[in-house]
Automatic annotation (TrEMBL):
<feature type="domain" description="Glycosyltransferase RgtA/B/C/D-like">
    <location>
        <begin position="75"/>
        <end position="235"/>
    </location>
</feature>
<dbReference type="Pfam" id="PF13231">
    <property type="entry name" value="PMT_2"/>
</dbReference>
<feature type="transmembrane region" description="Helical">
    <location>
        <begin position="220"/>
        <end position="238"/>
    </location>
</feature>
<keyword id="KW-1003">Cell membrane</keyword>
<feature type="transmembrane region" description="Helical">
    <location>
        <begin position="270"/>
        <end position="296"/>
    </location>
</feature>
<feature type="transmembrane region" description="Helical">
    <location>
        <begin position="122"/>
        <end position="140"/>
    </location>
</feature>
<keyword id="KW-0328">Glycosyltransferase</keyword>
<feature type="transmembrane region" description="Helical">
    <location>
        <begin position="152"/>
        <end position="170"/>
    </location>
</feature>
<dbReference type="InterPro" id="IPR050297">
    <property type="entry name" value="LipidA_mod_glycosyltrf_83"/>
</dbReference>
<feature type="transmembrane region" description="Helical">
    <location>
        <begin position="12"/>
        <end position="32"/>
    </location>
</feature>
<protein>
    <recommendedName>
        <fullName>Glycosyltransferase RgtA/B/C/D-like domain-containing protein</fullName>
    </recommendedName>
</protein>
<keyword id="KW-0808">Transferase</keyword>
<feature type="transmembrane region" description="Helical">
    <location>
        <begin position="337"/>
        <end position="353"/>
    </location>
</feature>
<feature type="transmembrane region" description="Helical">
    <location>
        <begin position="365"/>
        <end position="384"/>
    </location>
</feature>
<feature type="transmembrane region" description="Helical">
    <location>
        <begin position="308"/>
        <end position="331"/>
    </location>
</feature>
<keyword id="KW-0472">Membrane</keyword>
<feature type="transmembrane region" description="Helical">
    <location>
        <begin position="95"/>
        <end position="116"/>
    </location>
</feature>
Amino acid sequence: MKKPVQDLLRPWVLAQWWWLALVPVAWFSLFWRLGAQPLQNWDEARLAVNAAEMLRRHDWLVTHYRGQPDLWNTKPPLLIWLQALSLNAFGYSEWAFRLPTALAALALTGLVAAFARRWLGGPLAGLLAGLALLTSKGFVTQHVARSGDYEALLLLFTTAQLLAGFAWLQTRRPGYVVLLGIAVGLAVLTKSVAGLFLLPGLAIEITRRGRLLPLLRLPATWLAVGLALGIPALWYGLREHVAPGYLHAVWENELGGRMLGSLEQHASPWYWYLTSFVTQQFLLWTPWVLLSCWALARRPFRRPAHRFLTAALWSSGIFMLVISAASTKLAWYDAPLYPLLALVIGGGLTVLARRVAARHVAAAATWRSLFLVALAVVPSLIAVQRRLGKEHSRRYEEAALTYGRFLHDANATAGGNSHFIALHHSISPSTQTYNAPLEFYALAFEHDHPGNTMEVRYAPAQLPVGHVVLVCGAAAQQLLAAHYRTRTLYAADSCQTVQVLAPR
């Protein structure tokens, strides 16, 4: 007689406590040294400045950068709201700023594991799906689960869309349709049109299964449509009313810009995501994805795991077509695939474990099933943790070249008055007049030291004699030395605190 997977798990851990194995992996993958690295330039640091200025101005509608409405980052502010609340609660630090992203990634892991347990094969499927997600290089990386960017929160809501739609197909409960509408609205409020990219595949699956007309007849469907459209429409309308010109900037940056043209030279061939996926982002899991798809495809069509495979393939396939057709391509744009692939792995490997159990006595089946889990999970877990260690070492060394670590040193500002100037200069044309991390660290300094001010400058002209200037990096120090005679007050790593004595 075939033994259920729950029986296979009991010699190892009680079936109801299967999720405990995910806890240490989640801690290492999502929270280990979360605040150790300095803020990354461009997107992450830009959001940090938006959140800090939101708190300073008490303006929760219009995001600002250097005192002006931010029309470079035109995404809706749901994530920035959460980051501002975190900074207000826990202080101005890298850890507090990234905490909402890490919590969103944790919630996504829990959602994936719980769904797999419910629909794809019980505790073993939930455990495997959660571990597959937490050991995916494309998920546990900068710009997704390890930094204060949009992707982790976006993935939580886009994955919830597909899972709610699938749950409705299986149960016909109207509540799942309402949850789908809420997830759509929150996804758009997180990252605009990117929150809709999994819906075409879900619509095809609903139509293919002959459930489109019954869905349209449900009152819950129109409530869901109202939520999905009303939540973003309210935000966009208010934002345009308060500061006209915002909708035009959204079109130029997010629709016409990224879809029809290449922003900031991020252009690549149409097959770029496929090659990146196989060679980098999901490398160690790729064979298991193929094996899982084969195992699920052999199951009877009436099985939920098989039906989920078809839904995931439709959604993933259409999504890949959309992002591959877009002119702007970035490594993290394919991140919505990883929760879906983790679910496929959870269901597929559980099928294989059950086949092992059907062919061997209980004790042998248990050890063979555990060996299968270890063979699938351990190499990816080791690879991710080694990469996180290398990434931490590299970023920590880079921190010596940034103002963030220097400003955390109390000696850096001990010898000045209440007004400081941070001078930035770079040999790179793209960053000569841009340093978003420095802008955030200056705001953090002012927050942590009431009565003190930190002015950020990008040119050495008209520096007041006697004022204290902070400079990091050889380029800024050489530029300052070329224009002024100075006296060094403190130095650490590549940074200096100096006092301006006289122009040269």
